[in-house]
Structure formats: C-alpha cells, structure tokens
C-alpha cells in the first residue's frame, strides 16, 4: 500500500511539474476559449508525449488526425485539432484523445510494475540472506559430546527440536522467496 501511495505521489508530482513547464512555456500558449481546461491538459500531455525532449515541436507523422504533417509546433497542433472539429471530424478528434489517454494510463501501469519489481528485489536480498543464515551452524568439537549452534543466534542448538521445526519453515520459505 505504501509503495502504491509513493507511486501515486510521484506520478502527481511529475504531472504537476510537466503541467507547470507546459503552462509557463510560451511555445505551449493556448487560446483558452477554444478548448476546455480538461482538453487543454490532455492536449498538452499528448503533445509532450510526442515532443520527447520538449523542444517545442512534436513528431506527429504517424497520427491519422495530422495527415501529411511531420513536425508541428504546439499552436499548429491545437489549430489542426480545432480545424478538424470545424470540419466535422469530431469522432476522429475524440478517438485521438481516447488513444492518447490510453497510452498515458499504460505508462502509469508500467511505472507501478517497475516500482513493484524494485521493491520486491530490495526485499528479496534481505529475506534471502536471513533464510540462508538459518542453515549456518558452527560445530564446537572441543566439548564432549560435540555440539553445534546457529551462527546467527548461539543460544539455539542445531540438534534441538526447536531448530528442526524452524528448518522445515526455512526450507518452505526457500521455495517461496529465493527460488519462487
């Protein structure tokens, strides 16, 4: 849960930072009366998705809505969207917006999966080390009869029934974490 909370906070921070850049950069200025605030946010995000290095022009050659155009400035990008609406191609604009939001949501899922894998990797190291330490017994042959104790906790005799019960548990955990 805390990992998901961190992911959400990180995503919001990233979106707010990007929105701030796009709102303050003159290359991304917009006519406020043509589009709603929600639409502008989506258009800014989709434009920045195509403008990977934020240089102010995006490669839109593969998008059907922008046929015949390769690189667009943000104002031209918005003009083409507005023109498509005026020409009655609202369905095409809506499909473009839906596809762009789907791509943005897929990215979010990828980053959540990345953080989940990172978190499990960090936990894997500590947990695996603890499990393997449970099999390290040190034998003391100076004493008659010879005895062995767990290196991690010298109060636990490796021949005791308590140790044997935990060995079964440790073997089961080997299949859950390091091997599973």
Sequence-ordered SSE layout with sheet pairings:
Blueprint: H1 2-24, H2 37-50, E1 57-59, E2 71-73, H3 74-86, H4 90-133, E3 137-140, E4 147-150, H5 161-176
Please characterize this protein's 3D structure.
The protein has two domains: 2-117, no CATH class; 134-176, no CATH class. The two termini are 22 Å apart. The mean pLDDT is 78. It has helices at 2-24, 37-50, 74-86, 90-133, 161-176, and strands at 57-59, 71-73, 137-140, 147-150. Helix 1 (2-24) packs across helix 4. The protein has 180 residues and is mainly alpha-helical. A two-stranded antiparallel sheet has the order 1-2. The protein has a two-stranded antiparallel sheet with strand order 3-4. It is rod-shaped, with a radius of gyration of 29 Å. Helices cover 61% and strands 8% of the residues.
How many individual domains? 2
How confident is the prediction overall: mean pLDDT?
Answer: 78
Alpha-beta classification: mainly alpha
What's the shape? rod-shaped
Task: Describe the strand arrangement of the main beta sheet, using strand numbers.
Answer: 1-2
**End-to-end distance, in Å?**
22 Å
Largest sheet: 2 strands, antiparallel
Number of helices: 5
Secondary-structure element order, N to C:
HHEEHHEEH
Strand content: 5-15%
Number of distinct beta strands: 4
Helix percent reads 55-70%
* Rounded radius of gyration (Å): 29 Å
Low-confidence stretches: none
